[in-house]
Prior knowledge:
single chain; about 90 residues; alpha/beta; 1 helix; about 20% helix; about 45% strand; globular
Amino acid sequence: MGKVLAGVLLSAAIVAPVIASASAMDASLVPDGTYVVKVEKVQDPQHALVMMNNGVETTLVAAGGVDFSKVKANETIKISLIKGKVPVYAVQ
């Protein structure tokens, strides 16, 4: 019984940081720059839910004439992020 409980506790200790690392972040908190991200879901032409390379999930907001409706789930895109908004992107 003690070995089973110890195994369960050890498994929980290993899995907890992995689950916590897949957290959502406001795009305005991401530093300005160029990033390669994987599209998880296009919510509407102005918003796309993406996973960044470091495991952080965020919702991108289109700026100007950018339209996310041409992007599909599971595609990799390269984005420029300025003050939390995406003025330009390219499908990889």
